Write the structure tokens for this entry.
Amino acid sequence: MKAKTTKTWAVAAIAVIGVFVFLFSKSVAIESAYPFQRVKKWFSRSVVSRMVGAWEGASAKAENVQLKRSLSALAIENSEYEKIYAENHRLRQVLEYSENRKQEWIPAEVLSYGGGAVDAFKSIRVSKGSFAGVREGAAVEVPEGLVGRVVSVTPHTSEIALITDPSVKVSCRIETEKPITGVLVGGSEDMLILRFLKPNVEILPMTKVYTSGLGGVFPPGIMVGAFNSSIEATEHGINGLEWRALVVPAVNFMTLKDVFIRK
């Protein structure tokens, strides 16, 4: 009986020792793995995550560059569409105007600015000449208004002095209740000078100015521009004061592409 009890206690002791050995060895294994796990975690956080971040950042940057290029391409394409639309609109206006005036006017393309005896932006050269029936002194206009007059002609081209040139005198009338007349005597691409006006006359800003037809060079009723300021007195030679005003031209002379010459 005593031997059996001793054997039981021995087995129990061995079991307890086995449990302790197992737990200790497991703890040792865990502790042994801890440094490697810390290194793995550090590598994952510090190296892998940075590499992934760098890769994703580079991909995002590349995608951003591609998107910017696509947007730029779309902007350029849209700009081209706008240019085509504007050109189409201009050509429609020219065609409509040409059809309405085909019995009276000769359409011509603008070849260049300047040249001849007048300064740049005071004249233009166009693609129609004597072979097309153009004559010197003929009036020139566009749908917006008066451009100038023909000053010289070759078989295939014509030189046109713009109304910004002081050598081109245009008799004008102002759209008011009572007739008011004056003479346009040149200016710049964005401002014309109207002289010989009646003194002390009230004219509202943006009142329209047309050709009067006096003198026979320009037919009546062609738009010239609109008043920009009130009439002012200026010194003028021995005759004393002269009354004049500034007029905003109806035509943008710097963007002319086609004109119409009176037959």
In short: The CA atoms of residues 27 and 33 lie 10 Å apart. The first helix runs from residue 2 to 101. The chain has one helix and 13 strands. Helices lie at 2-101.
